[in-house]
Write a structure and sequence with these properties.
The protein is an all-alpha fold. It is built from eight helices and no strands.
Length: 189
């Protein structure tokens, strides 16, 4: 009985270590990947691809809802503090809530539905939360955030980042599942 308990504790500790390493890896990649675009002078391309979003979505799928949410909340704030990009207020603060939802929902939904639908719902949920956050944050500054600005920034100008997230996250997840690195309870991947 004692051996069985210690064996389970060892497996749990190994998984916790693996999750922490992956969490910090996704967090670091999400903070530093946008800087690569800035260094090569392709800031507009970085905005279109939104590498921060990609790494948060991956963290939620691989590490679960808690780590995904924490990664999403911390990533834009840390990036803003280190590199001043994105600007802390209102951009990084709003993004923190958007990406918290991305990480949480992908982690929550990954075993409940096909990962494509989980990805879609997470991105829609995060963009909805960002819209509400922007209304509040801009109002606190004495400004306003219109519905037209929301639709334009989230969907009209944001469609390349949506497509990139589906292609990159979906592709990486498929590779990881086929390689046996990760698995989902729902085998419809």
């Amino acid at each position: 009985m004692e051996d069985n308990h210690s064996s389970r504790a060892k497996v749990k500790a190994e998984w916790l270590t693996k999750e922490l390493v992956l969490f910090f890896g996704f967090l670091a990649c999400g903070i530093f990947a946008p800087q690569i675009f800035h260094l090569i002078g392709q800031q507009a391309l970085g905005v279109r691809i939104s590498p921060m979003h990609v790494f948060v979505l991956m963290c939620g799928f691989v590490c679960g809802k808690r780590y995904g949410a924490l990664c999403g909340f911390l990533m834009p704030l840390i990036s803003s503090l280190i590199f001043t990009m994105p600007p802390i207020y209102p951009t990084a603060v709003g993004m923190a809530f958007e990406m918290l939802v991305y990480g949480y929902l992908t982690g929550l939904l990954k075993d409940k539905m096909h990962f494509v639908f989980a990805l879609l719902l997470a991105m829609l949920g995060g963009r909805l939360v960002l819209g509400v956050a922007n209304i509040i944050l801009y109002a606190l500054q004495g400004g306003s955030y219109s519905f037209d600005a929301y639709v334009s920034s989230m969907f009209v100008n944001g469609w390349p980042s949506i497509v990139c997230a589906f292609v990159i996250v979906g592709g990486v997840l498929l590779i990881m599942v086929k390689a046996g690195v990760i698995s989902f309870k729902n085998k419809n991947e």
